[in-house]
Amino acid sequence: LNNHAEHCQILTAFIEKKFSEIQIKLQKKPKDIEEVTEITDYMNTIPNNVQPLKDQIDAMMQYNNVLERFNLRVTLDHSNAKWTAAGWPLKIANTCEETERLLEQCRLSYLDDMNAEQERFAQSLNSLEAFACSFVQYEDLKHCEEASQKAAECMQRIEAAEEKKNLFNSREGLFDKEVTDYDQLSKIKKIFDPYYNLWSTA
Asked: I need a labelling partner for 140 at 20 to 30 A (CA). Which of 58, 125, 166, 198 fits?
């Protein structure tokens, strides 16, 4: 029976460890929409992850029932751990509800942030287009050094804008929003490419 009790303790510790890992993941505060999506996807796996643990809890309780039938006295820690383990499924269900509310709040907040950032990005494209169009002023090789430096700078800004556009488009998908075309950026690249080809090799 002592070996039986030890097995109960090992099983209880295993259940505690697995549920604690789930709890930690659920209580992680997302820092962006990507993490909101990641946690949401994880929550969808919880029923399949929890069911085997519920089976383990049932087995643990049956082992403890055997100990009780034989009147084997267990420690207070053993008894407390048993009831803590038995309560984990309800605790996880409650945490899931709390996490769902938090994720929805974060989702709305991050959507507002992205909308504001996209407005600033659209304004920055106007500035970038003016920069790209300014290369028409360089007409001969005496401007070679200045034009070459500015061409490198403009290309860096275009590449950064392209990365930003891709990030916005990816996040729009996560928010179930229509993907923004940003055809102005394609226009800027078309305007600038001949100048860049000229002055980057001059």
From this structure: 125
The whole-angstrom separation of Cα 3 and Cα 6 is 5
**Coil, strand, or helix at residue 29?**
coil
Helical H segments across 28-87, by residue range: 33-69, 76-86
Q: What is the DSSP string of 74-124?
A: --HHHHHHHHHHHTHHHHHHHHHHHHHHHHHHHHHHHHHHHHHHHHHHHHH
- What is the pTM assigned to this prediction? 0.84
**pLDDT tens per residue across span 34-71:** 999 999 999 999 999 999 999 999 999 988 888 777 67
d(CA 188, CA 4): 74
d(CA 138, CA 64): 86
Half-sphere exposure of 116 (CA within 13 A, CB side): 6
- Residue 72 pLDDT greater than 70, yes or no: no
Coil, helix or strand at residue 180: coil
φ/ψ of 65, rounded to 5, equals -65, -35
- Helix H or strand E segment including 10: helix 2-26
CB atoms within 10 A of CB 60: 22
- Longest CA pairwise span in the chain (Å): 100
Both tokens of 51, joined, read: 């069911």
